[in-house]
Amino acid sequence: MSQAKTICLAAFFTFLLSELRAGEKSYAFIVSGDCQYLAKNSARPRALDPYSEQANSRFIRLLKELAGKSIGKKFGGGKVSSELLGLIIAGDLIDSLDKGGGNYPAMQQFEWKRFLRDYGLRGGDGRIPWPVYELHGNHDGPQGDTFIIKDIIARNRERPNLAGRSKNGLHYSWDWGPLHLVNLGIFVGSGEKKRKDHHYAPRASLDFLKEDLESRVGDSRRPVIMSFHLHPFSAEYDWPKEDLSEFWKTVSAYNVAAIFHGHTHGSPPSRTRGDGKKFSPKLPEGIDIFNPDDSGAAKTDRKNPSKGVGLAHGFLYVELIDHPGGKEDTFIVRSYATRDNWKTHGWHSIWSKTINIPSGK
Length: 361
Description:
The protein is of the alpha/beta class. The protein has one domain (about 25-355): Metallo-dependent phosphatases (Purple Acid Phosphatase, chain A, domain 2), CATH 3.60.21. About 25% of the residues lie in helices and about 25% in strands. It has helices at about 5-25, 50-65, 105-120, 145-155, 205-215, 240-250, and strands at about 25-30, 85-90, 130-135, 160-165, 170-175, 180-185, 225, 255-260, 270-275, 280, 285-290, 300, 310, 315-320, 330-340, 345-355.
């Protein structure tokens, strides 16, 4: 083959490859959890605990600089998308609303105001540029009846691009391209109130999940992502066995791409697999369950006030790549972590799998 023909053929394949890449669609977003803003213990707090301030302010700064950040070859290469769709926060937005008396009411109000100032709602109305999709954890109100829950319900009326809201206004779903996402509060259970001898109120999250998936996903096989606070292999007094059983029965009928939860912190971020009966990172099959770690649950060590505790944190960068034609699609989750309260930080792990996006979705 002549040199000219070789050059032309190479140029053709380069053009073809660029066209294929151009036909790809990427849907990228961030998942974090447990920012747990903690005010100084005061009747009139004017600042956060210094370690909470350090963790959360550094994390917000990191988020603002995240788009376009390089990803090392060990973690798949490329760069963080410049068109991030939003941020999911898996509960425990503040630290103090599971406590009462003393200075706590004032601390709770201060913590929440700081969360709202930093995160905003629609993107650009806080200190980060993307919409926020938060849910509540036990530190925000174990029974789902606090002022933060009322504010989340109010925020849901203004939250961008929602596909559905629960009857009580607390739980909600939305779409990012072919992905259908559902936020379900502290855990997935039936009825508004907690069961006898159990810790938390589900606020009818299971009822909403069933209705939402049936009406908005159906038999389409669209990939589904669910987020809630407790891990779905919790102790029975946290997540009643009848609710947990019904949850797994419900989701088994759908194409679940991932589940995200908070609560356990578990530095660094991690992935396990589950089918409702077994849970292990080594399971060959099952639904992927991700713990994003916490983003800011640090505070002063009471036994040694010169030091902080809980200085290891993390979050997840999630990307669905819709390949053109009949090529299998790709779902990638990368973790990012720190050991020193976000003073230094870097990519930690990558998990990748093929996923089916139905044609035309």
